Amino acid sequence: MEGLGAFLGEQGFDIDQQAHVVQQFQRRALQKGDLYVQEGQISQYIGIVEIGVFQYFCLRDGDEVTTYTPGPGGFLVSLSSFLKQKPARESIRALTDSVIWVIHKSAFDQLRSDLPSFESFYIALLEDQINCIEDSRFNLLTLTAEERYRKLLDNEPHLLQEVPLQYLASILGVTPRHLSRIRGQIR
């Protein structure tokens, strides 16, 4: 709970608010390969990653397409499924042994109505997610594969050690073989 409380303190919650919010979360340990969200099911939880790396992915023509890989401090949610209570279009899987903090939608909604600071936190969370989606879309459409790889090196170098090559290739929109060539050229 200390980790979650510290995280909430960084988000501007005072001590009493932190205690109230932390009581609504549950700590969950996942093993490498465990699913947090399964495509086709309704997402009932938002999670915050304390330890570990996760993979958002969907199946396309029988192949996994990785769309996002959050690590510590990142949020875990199939956003449209959670917000609209519709089946998830993607799955979320632990790529490493992980620890997360989860809150059920009903408790989340109650916090939003009880605490104005939590509502502000929620709006900031949504804005951050929208920016991430926009950046990702823009980069995929305007940057070359080499430029996307360099950006990954600059912004998230830890992923190169923590995420298997085939998932990184999928995020970058290239085949694992093409990514190997890019890595060889850039080293």
**Biggest sheet features:** 4 strands, antiparallel
DSSP, total strands: 8
Order of strands across the main sheet: 1-8-3-6
- Taking all Cα atoms into account, the compactness measure Rg is 17 Å
Chain-averaged pLDDT: 87
Poorly predicted regions: none
CATH H-level superfamily title of the domain at 2-113: Jelly Rolls
Order of helices and strands: HHEEEEEEHEEHHHHHH
Query: Helical amount among residues, as a percent range?
Result: 40-55%
Report, as a whole number of angstroms, the end-to-end distance. 41 Å
- At CATH level 3, the topology of the domain at 2-113 is Jelly Rolls
Structural class: alpha+beta
Characterize the overall form. Answer: globular
CATH architecture of the domain at 2-113: Sandwich
From the structure provided, what is the oligomeric state, counting identical versus distinct chains?
Answer: single chain
Features of this protein?
187 residues, Jelly Rolls, four-stranded antiparallel sheet, 50% helix
